[in-house]
Structure formats: structure tokens, C-alpha cells
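Deliverable D5.2: sample structural annotation.
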Amino acid sequence: MTKILLCCIFSYASKPLVEYIFFVFERGGRELYALGTHHLVELRECSAKILSNLKAVQDVLIAAAKIANATIVEVAFHEFSPFGISGMVIIAESHLSIHTWPEYDYAAVDIFTCGDILKPEKAVAYLIEKFKSKNPSVVEMKRGIISPLNKKLPHKITDEEFGDTLQQSILLSNQKCF
């Protein structure tokens, strides 16, 4: 049986109280391993001045990636007329993206990271602080829960490991079907 545990209310020390919802997936009391973690960040009641400044938004997102210990590969941002900015920081471990609506004092941010070395929660706290969000919320989801063997999946896999893992997955799947 699969169960989903929802946990709410998370605080960043001296930061405003943040509604922090995350999902823990369990099967038979054991954690299911995932390929990545996706943070969906809602930044409400932000500084419109900052959200409408292309250089500021770009600098904050790049700094957030660095604070999370990510490896930046490429950066692309676009400013819309009359206002609004969309941007993407591609990292070796996935991406950070932002869409701003300064007319509503709002920004939507996605932070998707693979592996377990990065600290995306540090990036989240930094974004809340720098955009001066007075009413943030965050949803954390595990992505790529594909291990029927219920073992930790490597972030990078060799061809030999892939073949062994695939073979074991097929055998296990066949046993469950009959």
C-alpha cells in the first residue's frame, strides 16, 4: 500500500514563517528513492521594484544556484513589455526558473535538482530574502520515483550499471504481474 505524508509549516530561522509542504512517499514503511527534487516556490507580496529589474532578477537567480552548490551551465533571461521577466539558469544538476509579475508583486520559481549533493532549500531561503517576499510558500516534490527495487538510484549511471538495474527491474515487474 502506498501512503502520502503531508508535512506543513517550516521556518527559516529569522525569515518569515513559510508554508513548506513536502511529500514523503512510502511503500511498506520504506522510503522510495527518487531521481530528483522539485521545489515549486510561490513568492507573494514581493518588491515590485526588484521583480521588474532584469539585472537584479538574473543576479539573484544565479546567486541562488551558487548558494545551492549547483554547477551553472547556461543562463537565459527575457524582459517583457510593459513588464515581467522570465529566466532560466541551467545547471548540470537540472535547472532554476523564474517568471515575475511585478504588477502583482508575485514571482513563480521552480528549482529542480538531481542527486543528493545540492542544497536547494538554501536557494529557496535566499530567494525569499532577496525578493522580499512577505507571503511565500513552497511545495517540495520527489520526481522520478522509478525504483521498483526500492534502492537508491545513482545520479549518474554507467552502461553496465544501467543494464543490471534494468534487468532487475524487469524481473521484479514480471514477478508482481503474476
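Annotation notes: Residues 148 and 169 are 6 Å apart (CA to CA). DSSP finds four helices and ten strands in the chain.
The annotation will be released with the project's public dataset once the embargo ends.
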